[in-house]
Task: inverse folding
């Protein structure tokens, strides 16, 4: 429902009050008596906005406009990628939402095509000649980019804890399997917790279990550093944290791999040698065959000559 809003002077509300009538009132505050009519009354121009009638809204009937301390809301920041007016060139290189290159079009035509497709016109390369723009759903694009960034940050900061359990009397094969698994986990950036459980009378072999964990840590080497350990409880463990400096360095090739590569190269050389020998034998056979054919031809000629 509409209402009527008007602004009136605040001084008109006190038009009927005079100095004498105002100061004829006795004030008992702090035992002071104000009865001097000659004292000036300070005047202040204050505007009052009154609203009569109307509905809706809460908030009182009067709004003082003389002292407005609220700041104005800030304008929404426009993303530079959407500021097409910043392009000085009259033509742009346009890419559609399906990654198809549409070629050179005028800037106004690109804006019109984006509006017709109900998409945003985003600047990809403002410094190119001409600038490269693309039609896309920019809000969806930004959401996906932010999501990828968060996922990457989680991958870089997250460090999982992998547990490897073994007995104090583990055999060499199982020990090697766990050692390789720990190396892989550490290279992937995860922590490794190696546990040796002592059950019942196995507690008598605690020293063997401690030596096993120390041996395991020694063979891991500089690939990890010790974060914590516990050799007092029945479940002895040590937690290893990957050494980032060592992970960044390329790992040296294992001797077995080098041997396999060398043996493969030797095998190829041997095969090539055998092929060369076979080719030599074939050439020798061909030479012998040619010599035999020549001898046979000479014999035939001699027989023809001696015939009556």
Result:
């Amino acid at each position: 429902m509409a209402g009527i809003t008007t602004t009136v002077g605040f001084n008109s509300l006190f038009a009927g009050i005079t100095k004498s009538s105002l100061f004829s009132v006795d004030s008992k505050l702090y035992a002071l008596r104000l009865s001097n009519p000659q004292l000036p009354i300070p005047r202040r121009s204050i505007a009052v906005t009154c609203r009569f009638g109307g509905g809706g809204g809460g908030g009182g009937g009067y709004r003082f406009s003389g002292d407005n301390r609220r700041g104005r809301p800030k304008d929404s920041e426009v993303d530079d990628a959407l500021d097409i007016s910043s392009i000085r060139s009259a033509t742009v290189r346009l890419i559609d939402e399906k990654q198809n290159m549409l070629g050179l079009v005028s800037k106004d035509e690109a804006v019109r095509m984006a509006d017709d497709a109900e998409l945003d016109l985003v600047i990809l390369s403002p410094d190119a000649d001409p600038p490269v723009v693309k039609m896309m759903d920019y809000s969806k694009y930004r959401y996906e980019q932010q999501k990828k960034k968060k996922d990457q940050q989680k991958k870089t900061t997250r460090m999982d804890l992998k547990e490897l359990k073994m007995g104090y009397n583990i055999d060499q094969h199982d020990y090697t399997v766990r050692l390789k698994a720990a190396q892989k986990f550490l290279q992937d950036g995860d922590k490794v917790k190696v546990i040796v459980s002592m059950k019942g009378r196995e507690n008598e072999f605690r020293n063997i279990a401690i030596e096993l964990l120390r041996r395991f840590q020694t063979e891991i080497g500089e690939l990890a550093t010790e974060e914590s350990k516990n050799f007092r409880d029945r479940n002895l463990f040590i937690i290893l944290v990957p050494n980032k400096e060592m992970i960044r360095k390329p790992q040296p090739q294992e001797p077995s791999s080098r041997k396999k590569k060398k043996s493969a190269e030797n095998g190829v050389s041997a095969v090539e040698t055998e092929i060369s020998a076979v080719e030599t034998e074939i050439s020798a056979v061909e030479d012998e065959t040619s010599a035999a054919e020549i001898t046979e031809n000479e014999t035939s000629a001699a027989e023809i000559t001696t015939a009556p």
